[in-house]
Amino acid sequence: MIESGKQFDLVCVDEIVQPELHRWSSRSQMDQDKTGNAEMVVVSDSEKMTDYERRSKIRKRMLIYLNGCGLYGTYVPVSRGWSLPNLLWLAFSILCLCLSMRTSHLFLALSRSFLPPAILATLYIYFYPFFHQCSFPEARHAEAACYFADADHAKAAVPGELAPFRLLVFGDPQLEGDTSLPEHGHAELFPSLRRLWSRVERDALASLTTSLGDEAKRLWNDDIPGAFRTYHKRLDLWGNDLYLAHVYRTIHWYTKPTHVAVLGDLLGSQWISDEEFMRRSYRFWHVVFRGAKKVPQLITDASTSRPDILGADPRWKDMVITVPGNHDIGYAGDIDEHRIARFEHMYNRVNWDIRFALNNTTTIDPATLQPTTPELRLIVLNSMNLDGPVAAWDPHQESIDFLNHKLYHDLPSPDSATILLTHIPLHKEAGTCRDAPFVDYLPEHHGGGIKEQNHLSEDVSQRILDGIIGLERSRKGIILNGHDHAGCDVYHSKKKELDLEALQSEDASSYQDRWDAKTYARAQQQVLDSTLTGIREVTVRSMMGDFGGNAGLLSAWWDKETKEWKFDYDSCMFGVQHIWWAVHILDLVVLGFGIAGVLLKGIEGLNSTQATTELKKKQFLEMYQTVHVHTVVVPFILQSKSHTLVLAIHR
Q: The whole model's pTM is what?
């Protein structure tokens, strides 16, 4: 018999007792002698309930004691409602269950729990163009305007095809650097510790008590927050580079462009030193646009009239056309030759152009009756110093001369079209886009030049538009720019023919042949009006995280039916940078849980292998010596197959 007043552990033995044990279980379920000493408790009887009922009762009622450690869990009874007490009890039960698990089992369970959402989230960020159905607009010819319709849907008579010119375009990455760090990255970490050590060296231990208290306050109030801000910003810069690289790499891999361009503001400041300019440029080429190359100087400096054949040189898909922006070389009031020189050294010329001929396609020039090949003319224009006053006259004059030569003197063939890449948007009325027309000037003692501007002046804008459509007002073209981070899509239109009657009338002085600008979505009537000519201007939304990691997709193709170039534009956004951070942190957490669980399980297995046999022998001997129900109880317990027995074991 077991003496009263002793401490006991409750050991649950869930087995199925063989039929010959039934005669030993015919006693009462709670058999206790008159002295108060427990002998044996039979919790459930297989003769009175089914296996399902037995296990359900155990799950709902039985407390699981964890080897006398004082922690226990319980199974919550089934409830019809999700009341607050039941939810709290469920949370408490889950917590107890976690505490009752081995450490390795806990980590592996957490890893398995978070693995499905981690896989789904990772699939999204690496295949987001597929989920958003991002692609270059298809080349649609005029005859594709006819549709076959049935009861359910309409289908184009001529399916679209892949455009021969596909430009992947990004706006304003603005790589930051030391200028965004405290004291431009030169701040001393924990200066209070240095000051404290200096005082100890100077005064020995005489002023240690006073100095220690003062410097401890400065360490807590100034140094630690400053160090946190510094390293937090460094982490943010590192993550931002990887985020932008992810956007470029993913959309480039999925859409397969023929050409790539970045429309200015490659870097975040024009006032940085040459060393910092080189560091940020290195990050641009080796982190953000890793694997890409700048356009060779042999191409940007070429003055040959021979065009490149579209698709003949596969290197173009890995070359990035870079346009200068205000954060790269400055506005007109602070541009100088040195900033332009360092930009051209690390990227490409600020003003250049190239022509692409369409392979295997010829047309007849109506003026000369000679066969010609349709061509696309791509112009990179430095718009930062087209307006004045300017700080440096020579770069300003070079941009003006380049604009006049390419749009008014170097006339292309009638079957050509122009793609103009620049940074500052053209002039348009306030309310058309996010940024309204705005110009600010430097003080006179700093030259009085342009300090900041949102749009080009109206005169410069009209000169650019007039040059693209040509004197006959029939040439095709499109303008892509950046600067306005929110992006905008505008259609500029004007009459194809001058109103001769108005020009010959008495009010001829009041007649204005002006461009009208509307958002592209509201200008569909002007687009379809055959009496109007027009140019589409797309201000590409920034690729920065705050603006969704945007990428622009421009398609250009030659319409054989209408004998003209056509353009279409679409965009694709990944999402804010927090999505990128959250998914990768989740992946690291799941991976960490999994690795920790596997390692801990291996360690636990090594530690328990040798002790398992000895522990089982010891427990068997203690049970055999302590339990005095019948001399055959222990053998039956070891072979039990139908009863759940709770044995009182003496400690």
A: 0.76
